[in-house]
Amino acid sequence: MNTANFPWLTTIILLPIAASLLLPIIPDKEGKTVRWYSLVVGLIDFALIVYAFYTGYDFSNPDLQLVESYPWVPQLGLNWSVGADGLSMPLIILTGFITTLAILAAWPVTFKPKLFYFLILAMYGGQIAVFAVQDMLLFFLVWELELVPIYFLLSIWGGKRRQYAATKFILYTAGGSLFILLSALTMGFYGDTVTFDMRSLALKDFALNFQLALYAGFLIAYAVKLPIIPLHTWLPDAHGEATAPVHMLLAGILLKMGGYALIRMNAQMLPDAHAFFAPVLVVLGVVNIIYAALTSFAQRNLKRKIAYSSISHMGFVMIGIASFTDLGLSGAVLQMVSHGLIGASLFFLVGATYDRTHTLMLDEMGGVAKRMPKIFAMFTTCSMASLALPGMSGFVAELMVFVGFATSDAYSSTFKVIVVFLMAVGVILTPIYLLSMLREIFYGKENEELVSHQALIDAEPREVFIIACLLIPIIGIGFYPKLLTQMYDATTVQLTARLRDSVPTLAQQKDDALKVSLSAPQIAN
Fold it and tell me: pTM here?
């Protein structure tokens, strides 16, 4: 087989979707065969992802690779066009990794297992497609595709308020998606040539006012998914009602779709508008960091506390995207991958704790460390990663965003000092509410009613294995960030250079430097 011409990305996207269609005909009443089947499909697809990038991807090439393009609906100009570069490749790998672990985390599911795993596998292919497609109309379709599984996973297997949470999720995200469709159609029909190919659209000479309008439309859509305050309220409700595997998909992958699209569409395709909107992104990022951290303090529900922590951490992604430095943008991508791993681990442990204590209220917990020492150790380690302990991936990512923004030439010194100070406040707040959370769950006086419960047992091998799989890359990236950054540095450096050319102050500095260099010989004469 010629691996260079093999349709790797198409296979990786369609395999789990096709495999999910076979689930209804598998003879299985208790769900044991179905879960093993789904796990094998997940492992095979993840193995294909790793093999495809190992054999056919060049880290030094900043452009799209593994490119495939086939006419789909020529009358509409819709093509099946996929490819991967440094922005999408790490997130495709993350999707395969987190989804496979989420399938393993769903082992205890016994209610409608065929439907549950059908939705998980369908979502698997849809989320990979979001990071791989290179056609705007196709992007909109796969963006919508992944909404449906999440809606049913919330509304069928969620908590007491699952219908409310699922409805709110679909209204927010579907409403935001309309802005993607309108912006995509407007871009495609702009000018003399009708095209929806992202590479061709990036080369179109859009007028500045037109770019600004498109940027605002995309920003609204991706602000919902990232999420950016005030369009964030669906997330705590969704997390508050979701099960552990759905938590892992929401925190580990879904939020990253917003950050990825913000870089791919807003920054890469509309660089002139990005120069105007970048300060707005910085301000919104700071608001995310501070507001969500303070709100997390007030949450007595464990899931909602971690959900607001996720919103806070995604603020660093926005600031990194708006930094106009190689280091800042690299830190934003690293933060997305790092938070995907850390968020998935924390929410999985929240689910494991709930399965034993049957409560999410911190006031009803306390003193369970002696009863569940393994869960205590894993929860503490993952919390340390979330609060950016040195040696963990979160520390490296946030430090890169800090330094990248602080060394940016695109902003005044006063603005940078204020932003860096507020970011530091957010970093200080994080360990306070996370350590307080650990104290309320595991330390203090035991709740007699809670500790007497027969289900209050320690972690089983499956749960330890899942957390170990997540901690290995968290710690590995923390000690050697190049493990990840080398995958995308070429792409982010190229993108940053283009963005810097779009900043009026930086462009003027270059013109002034050029004038000085040209006039130097005349002065010498």
Answer: 0.92
